[in-house]
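Input record, target 12 of the design panel.
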């Protein structure tokens, strides 16, 4: 399959989210392997969503989150249940949106460039399967609207799990 982002440069942020959702709908229709899907989901997010330094997945493995497919700099390979923003989304089974990661003392700094963060849990059979983690080098990068869009993105993927 060949793929092009040609023509997406001039889309508005909302139109880019629509493009990402359409892309993921096509991916989950054509491919069933979650690893391959997560790899392409990280890539399309990083390619189209502005001002991110990290986008990717952590997956629940026993009592830890283990690094999954992502785009960005190398990151912590394991996160414990009791520490960090990703683990909070896991424990609460709800998104976590931080305007300033340094104001959240429990934050685990994997990439020192990160200033704000959004984490969305993936739920399968009422249990957390993993999380989608987005990091930005800008303070207050993520709005409620971004959160709504990323929740929808995760829903499209988790329905295929
Ligand atoms: N900041 C996350 C750790 C993962 S990295 O940001 C990629 C946390 O506090 O859980």
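The sequence produced for target 12 reads:
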């Amino acid at each position: 399959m060949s793929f092009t982002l040609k023509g997406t440069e001039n889309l508005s942020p909302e139109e880019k989210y629509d493009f990402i959702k359409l892309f993921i709908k096509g991916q989950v229709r054509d491919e069933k392997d979650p690893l391959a899907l997560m790899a392409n989901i990280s890539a399309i997010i990083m390619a189209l969503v502005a001002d991110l330094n990290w986008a990717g997945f952590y997956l629940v493995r026993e009592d830890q989150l283990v690094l999954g497919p992502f785009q960005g700099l190398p990151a912590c390979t394991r996160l414990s249940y009791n520490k960090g923003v990703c683990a909070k989304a896991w424990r609460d089974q709800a998104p976590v949106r931080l305007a300033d990661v340094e104001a959240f003392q429990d934050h685990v700094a994997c990439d020192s460039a990160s200033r704000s963060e959004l984490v969305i849990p993936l739920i399968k059979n009422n249990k957390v399967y993993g999380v989608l983690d987005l990091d930005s080098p800008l303070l207050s990068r993520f709005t409620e609207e971004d959160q709504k869009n990323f929740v929808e993105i995760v829903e499209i993927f988790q329905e295929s799990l």
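The helical segments are 13-30, 34-48, 85-92, 144-158.
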